Structures are given as structure tokens and as C-alpha cells.
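Work Package 4 report. The design task specified in the project plan requires that, given a folded chain encoded as C-alpha cells, an amino acid be chosen for each position. We show below one input record used in the internal validation round.
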């Protein structure tokens, strides 16, 4: 069984549906791939067919080995049967194989027996095997005997191979639907690889427990199932394991008055039962540079901004908040966007070891996470006021970046997929807006290193002053962080600056996970509010994986942080307000959220100006009469009596 929950997969699709590209992406991470080409060469004068074959060959990496089986249909069965557990095979496609099977050169033959042999070889295969096949016969029955023979044989082949495979996917117009997930009881998202088996959900428990430090070797990216451990304890298991659960989503409730309590007092807080707790799945998604993800609507954003000029507003308008209306319109696909009703805060907790955490109080991030789970602290209170759900996500501890990679490459891949899955979970739950927050020792230094690597900045220009919990400025710690970033950049000066390399060498677990969230949110068309160094550093990395991601991000405030300012300039994100709040990453975005919602409410509900056809006041008669024009001066009626304007002289 592969890490994706399957080891044999059938990919079906029509002509030019994208089935071959999808199948190739599933095995792109394999060190070597044996590409089994089944199509015959065809007529030498058929240049169009030759061009198709050439295009397929050009897409294959140089490390792949190609084997042609067109000369003998039985050869495909032999290749599959001979492949071992460490082999990866891509068969493209079974339509060509059936064509060869029905060729008069190979007749007479028992086609049914050969198809059965192929299905048996697939069923018993220990290799990672992906087979591509066209789905035909959905329309009229062919009028020729040869056409009917082909559709019948291909239909029988698809049915037999689908039954033998662990999973079956159907690609239509470039979109993937899972017909047979690896685990039938677990529904799979339409564009993800089918899930591995997951344990049944357990009833969540809200009992708090003291924070325990996880060893670096564990490097977990998950929280334990609620019934197995306290919410803030970390399960020492890898992210790709099939028995992991996503963190529960807490629903905060605003308290009328804060109850006096010690900062770390245990308790359940003002929380309702979790709204969602889904099993973690290994999506099998291939996250790589150049991904084509959705873009916001190009037309509705400008239309919504132009519409603001027609509203019945006494002043000059919404000012910089027009950007919020344009952003919401483009991401919602309508020129009359509505305020975001369903909001979720993702709080990513991930510490960094080494000099990056100089000046940080040990255990501070764990305490902040416990506060949030108990419904206390600035982030939880603001989430309650905004009626937003709160999800605390544990990222792996990042190693000292000055000494070596902050995170192994395989954990970077796992973190990206995990973040993507968190965004998918939110989209499936109907969340309309994500707020990306983070807390962790050394996170700002790691974000500065990412900015230096991706934007060519110097550490002192993007690292903010170190403020202790007592409110004092610690210049010694600031210099230590600058030196750490400098040493890490020197160590990696000859390393690649690809997105995943930057995450592995410098970014670490929290920034990698945040990057996955941004990519997953973009794929599901969910806008994201950024706030702080981790979110903006993730946005810098995500632009090299999918340039569309930054267009789904909104930055309410730069928070006075130089690194956030630089990232905003590079990404083309204009901060909307300058509140100068420093309440922790994510809190400023929540503080500004009511203002953003107010702008959307006005844009959606105010009528057009009466001069443009809007209602005249409330539709009633005017409260006053326009006075008659006055004359040039008093008029006398007799010797001494003046007559006022509007008064009739008798």
C-alpha cells in the first residue's frame, strides 16, 4: 500500500480530459517510473497522431524508462506481474492495449481470457501501479461491427481492471471525481487522491492538561484524537500516518464580562462542543511549482467598486475600504458582495530552536495555545466577538536553521498537504473566510529568513525589535536573531531557492503548514486574511508554487512589522488600516474584521442615489416646503408696514 492509501489505481477519462496529465502527476514524486506505452505507432503519414505521441514523450521526465508493448498484448500482463514492491508503473493507456488486442494480426485469440489475465495481474501486483484508460460508450452504440467490438472489449477491460484496483478516478474536463476511494466509508474530495483508512471518530473531550514538550525526533504535525489525549498534547506520529485526526474546531462564545482567573488556570472556558472533527487523510496531492489554481473574478471586483459611486452616500464614500468591497466581490463572484458570515481562525503553533528564538520565554507559545483552547486571551475573545470558529494546529518543532535544515523534505511535503487539508475541511464546512494566525518562538526570525531568501532582503531590515513579555526591548536578542538569519543564509548560499527548498532550509513547520493552507484555500476559492510574519512569509512562498494564491489574500494591517511591510510591497497587498495593535498574530485581523464587514454591509444594502433612480428618502411626502423666492427687499403696504416674502398683500 502506498502512502496515499492505494497501490493500484485506474484513471478513466474522455479524450483531452486531462487524464494522462493527472496520472503522471500522481507518480511524479517517485525516483524512477516505468512508463508502459501501449499505443501502436499508427500510419506513418498520420502526422497528427505522431504529434500526439511526441507530446506524450516530451512530458516524461528523463528519469523515466519507457517500454512499448504494442507488438504483443500479452506483454503488458508480463510487465505488471514482474514488477516488485519498489517499482512504480504507469500504463497509458488501456484503449491502445485493446486496439492491439483486437488487431487481426493477433487473432484468433481469447479476448475474454486475456482481459481476465490482466485483471488478475493488477489484483496481485505489489508495485505502485497507475493505469489510464479512455471511458467510451456513453453515447450511441457504434454503427460498425469493429466499433462495437472495440467499445465492448474496452468496457469489459475497464470493469475488470476497476474491480481489481484499490481506487478508481474519473477525469472530466480536467476535474477529478473519485468513483472508488481506497476506503469506501470515507468520502474523498473531488480533486484529491483517495484517503487511507481512518479510525472512527471518538467523542471529543475538553479536559485540559499540562503542556508537555515533544522531542524533536517526533516532529508531529497533528493533535491526538480528543478522546485519547488532552487537546494541547501532541501525538508523536508523522503527518502522513493514516490514523491522524484534524484538530477540533472550537466555537467561542462571547462572555458578558471576563471572569477573574489566573492566566494559566485550567478550565473548559466558554466553548461549545466542537463543530467538526474529521479524520486526517493523506491526500496524495502533488504540490509543485506552476500549479494552475483558480483566480478571483476579473470583472465583478471593478464592477462592485464602480457601483459604490452610485450609492446614496452623503460623503465621498468608503475611502480605502473600497478595496475590501472589490476584494469580496472578486472572491465571491458577484458585484454585490455580502459580509462574511462564517469565519474560521487557524492558529498555527510551531516553535523554532536555536538562535531564532532568542529572547523568547520558554513555553510561551504553549501557554498561548492553552489560553485559546480555554476561551481566554486576546485571540479567543476577538474570535468570540466576531462569531468565528477557532482551530489550533500543532506544527512540528523546527531545528536550528543556522546549523542545518529546519525541517526534513518529507515533513515539508506532509506539512503542505496537511495545511491544504485544513483549508479543504473549512471549505467543506461552509467557511467563507479564513483568518491565518500563528504563535511560536522564533517564528518572526524564520519569516525574516524566508523573506531574505525570496525577496533579497537583509535580516536587520525585516526583523522587528524584540519585546519581552514585560514590555522591555531586548536588543541583545534582536542581534542574536539577526546573526542566526545571516548564518542560515550563508549556509544555504549555494542551495536552490525553490519554494520547497526555502521551507525545508529556513521556513520550518509553521510556515510550511501555513503555505499549504493558502494553497488549499485558493483551490477551494476561500479568501484569507493575513496578519503577521508567518502568514506573509507563507504568501511569499506560495506565489512560487501557485501565483494565484496572493489574489485570495487580504492584509488588513501591517502591524508595524518591517517584514510584513516588505512582503506586502512584493505581493501587491495594500494594508487597509494602521491600528498599531500588537496583540499577537491574527488578533489585529480580527479587530479589523467588524470594520470590513461594515463596509460590505453598506455596499450591499444602501440604495442608489435618487438622481440615479433610487428611492427619494423613505417614499413619504417631504417634511418641509421649499420657500418662495424672496424679492429684492421689503415691500411696504401703506406707510410703515413691511411685507415679508410669501405674504400676500391685501
Amino acid at each position: 500500500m502506498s502512502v496515499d492509501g492505494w497501490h493500484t489505481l485506474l484513471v478513466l477519462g474522455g479524450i483531452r480530459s486531462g487524464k494522462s496529465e493527472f496520472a503522471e502527476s500522481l507518480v511524479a514524486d517517485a525516483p524512477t517510473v516505468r512508463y508502459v506505452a501501449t499505443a501502436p505507432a499508427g500510419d506513418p503519414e498520420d502526422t497528427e497522431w505522431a504529434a500526439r505521441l511526441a507530446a506524450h514523450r516530451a512530458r516524461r521526465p528523463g528519469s523515466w524508462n519507457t517500454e512499448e508493448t504494442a507488438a504483443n498484448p500479452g506483454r503488458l500482463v508480463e510487465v505488471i506481474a514482474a514488477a516488485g514492491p519498489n517499482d512504480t508503473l504507469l500504463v497509458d493507456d488501456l484503449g491502445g492495449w485493446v486496439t492491439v488486442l483486437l488487431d487481426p494480426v493477433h487473432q484468433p485469440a481469447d479476448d475474454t481470457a486475456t482481459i481476465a489475465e490482466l485483471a488478475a495481474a493488477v489484483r496481485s501486483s505489489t508495485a505502485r501501479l497507475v493505469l489510464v484508460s479512455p471511458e467510451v460508450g456513453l453515447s450511441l452504440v457504434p454503427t460498425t461491427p469493429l466499433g462495437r467490438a472495440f467499445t465492448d472489449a474496452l468496457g469489459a477491460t475497464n470493469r475488470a481492471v476497476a474491480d481489481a484496483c484499490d481506487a478508481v478516478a474519473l477525469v472530466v474536463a480536467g476535474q477529478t471525481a473519485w468513483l472508488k476511494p481506497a476506503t469506501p466509508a470515507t468520502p474523498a474530495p473531488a480533486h484529491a487522491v483517495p484517503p487511507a483508512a481512518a479510525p472512527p471518530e471518538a467523542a471529543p473531550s475538553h479536559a485540559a492538561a499540562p503542556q508537555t514538550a515533544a522531542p524533536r525526533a517526533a516532529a508531529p504535525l497533528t493533535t491526538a484524537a480528543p478522546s485519547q489525549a488532552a487537546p494541547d498534547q501532541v501525538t508523536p506520529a508523522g503527518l502522513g500516518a493514516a490514523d491522524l485526526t484534524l484538530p477540533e474546531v472550537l466555537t467561542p462564545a462571547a462572555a458578558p464580562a471576563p471572569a477573574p482567573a489566573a492566566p494559566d488556570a485550567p478550565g473548559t472556558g466558554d466553548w461549545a462542543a466542537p463543530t467538526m472533527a474529521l479524520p486526517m487523510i493523506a491526500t496524495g496531492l502533488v504540490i509543485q511549482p506552476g500549479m494552475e489554481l483558480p483566480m478571483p473574478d476579473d470583472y465583478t471586483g471593478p464592477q462592485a467598486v464602480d457601483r459604490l459611486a452610485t450609492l446614496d452616500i452623503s460623503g465621498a464614500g468608503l475611502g480605502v475600504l473600497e478595496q475590501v468591497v472589490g476584494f469580496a466581490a472578486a472572491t465571491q463572484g458577484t458585484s454585490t458582495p455580502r459580509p462574511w458570515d462564517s469565519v474560521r481562525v487557524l492558529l498555527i503553533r510551531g516553535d523554532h530552536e536555536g538562535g531564532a528564538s532568542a529572547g523568547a520565554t520558554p513555553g510561551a507559545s504553549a501557554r498561548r495555545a492553552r489560553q485559546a483552547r480555554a476561551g481566554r486571551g486576546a485571540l479567543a475573545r476577538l474570535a468570540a466577538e466576531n462569531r468565528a470558529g477557532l482551530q489550533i494546529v500543532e506544527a512540528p518543532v523546527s531545528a536550528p536553521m543556522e546549523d542545518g535544515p529546519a525541517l526534513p523534505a518529507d515533513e515539508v511535503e506532509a506539512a503542505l498537504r496537511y495545511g491544504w487539508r485544513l483549508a479543504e475541511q473549512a471549505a467543506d464546512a461552509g467557511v467563507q473566510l479564513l483568518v491565518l494566525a500563528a504563535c511560536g518562538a522564533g517564528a518572526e526570525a524564520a519569516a525574516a529568513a524566508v523573506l531574505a531568501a525570496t525577496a533579497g532582503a537583509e535580516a536587520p531590515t525585516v526583523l522587528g525589535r524584540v519585546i519581552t513579555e514585560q514590555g522591555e526591548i531586548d536588543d541583545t536578542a534582536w542581534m542574536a536573531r539577526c546573526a542566526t538569519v545571516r548564518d542560515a543564509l550563508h549556509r544555504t548560499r549555494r542551495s536552490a531557492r525553490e519554494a520547497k527548498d526555502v521551507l525545508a532550509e529556513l521556513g520550518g513547520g509553521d510556515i510550511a503548514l501555513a503555505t499549504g493552507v493558502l494553497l488549499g484555500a485558493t483551490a477551494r476559492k476561500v479568501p484569507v486574511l493575513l496578519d503577521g510574519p508567518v502568514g506573509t512569509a507563507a504568501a511569499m512562498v506560495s506565489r512560487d508554487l501557485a501565483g494565484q494564491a496572493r489574489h485570495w489574500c487580504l492584509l488588513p494591517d501591517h502591524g508595524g512589522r518591517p517584514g510584513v511591510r516588505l512582503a506586502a510591497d512584493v505581493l501587491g497587498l495594500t494594508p487597509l488600516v494602521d491600528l498599531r495593535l500588537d496583540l499577537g498574530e491574527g488578533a489585529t485581523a480580527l479587530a479589523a474584521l467588524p470594520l470590513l464587514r461594515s463596509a460590505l454591509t453598506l455596499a450591499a444594502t444602501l440604495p442608489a442615489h435618487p438622481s440615479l433612480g433610487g428611492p427619494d428618502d423613505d417614499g413619504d411626502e417631504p417634511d418641509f416646503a421649499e420657500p418662495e423666492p424672496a424679492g429684492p427687499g421689503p415691500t411696504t403696504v401703506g406707510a410703515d408696514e413691511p411685507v415679508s416674502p410669501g405674504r400676500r398683500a391685501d
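The chain is about 35% helix and 10% strand. Validation will be extended to a larger panel in the next phase.
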